[in-house]
Specification:
single chain, alpha/beta, Arc Repressor Mutant, subunit A, D-Maltodextrin-Binding Protein, domain 2, 7-stranded mixed sheet, two-stranded antiparallel ribbon, 12 helices, disordered N terminus, LysR family transcriptional regulator, LysR_subst-bd, WH_DNA-bd_sf, WH-like_DNA-bd_sf
Amino acid sequence: MDTVAPDVAIESLRLLVAVADLGSISAAARAAQISQPSASARMRHLERSLRLDLLDRRTRGAELTDAGRAVTEWARAVVSAMDALRTGAEALHTEHPVRVSASQTIAEFLVPAWLAQLRTRTDEPVHLRVANSTGVIAAVRDHSADLGFVEGPTVPRDLVARTVRRDRLALVVAPSHRLARRRAPVGATELADMELVTREEGAGTRDVLDRALAHAGFPGAHPAALSLDSNAAVKVMVQAGGPPAVLSELAVAAELRDGRLVEVATVGLDLHRLLRAVRRRDAAPRDVISTLLAVASGR
């Protein structure tokens, strides 16, 4: 049994209603801001999809056939329902701001500038939650975050990832530390045995260091003198004369400039990393998220 083709587009139905109201395809085309040939093509496609003659083209303008008048009334209901759906969706966007979760280094040193730039392009509110990379991935997976920014070495395959920036970790010490006067770089073997002040497990900075040491031939747990859950706490400990730390160059840039910390060169280790945005594969598209991703990527 023949059936009506399922590819009836809402914009074709909207155009049919405009033809009925305005009396001609050309007037409907102007209202829809498309060319008359495009409007005529849409009407012919709609007729083929429905297997009905909707317009009498032998008359001046465009007069609806009996079938066309019936379909137009049904089309008004469909168009009205679609408009209500779109209005409701926009209201939900307003009631439910975009929820962004960012790992600590990104949240502290990059996200504020990104959000400031975003404000110049849209008024849609954004709520920011700070966590480590493991926490960000969990928030995106359980739908408590619409977008995440992570700095860990890997992203689960069930999420979509996009690189927004590259970063580098640096070995830093206080100016009074013995390594501050050292000229030879620290190798992988020495760093693998060195007690450090580190970020907590699950932090992207810690994961990148562990991954770099493993690739250099030193897998397993690193001997941490102390694990702290913030970049600020790690820096305070190092500046106070504590053990060295390996932190993002973003996190220590100010301290290196004013001499509160000193970078110690390393060799035989790849301490570069990617900073990435992550989303669920089934995430609904939102303009504000696309804009934020463009800002984060420098576009």
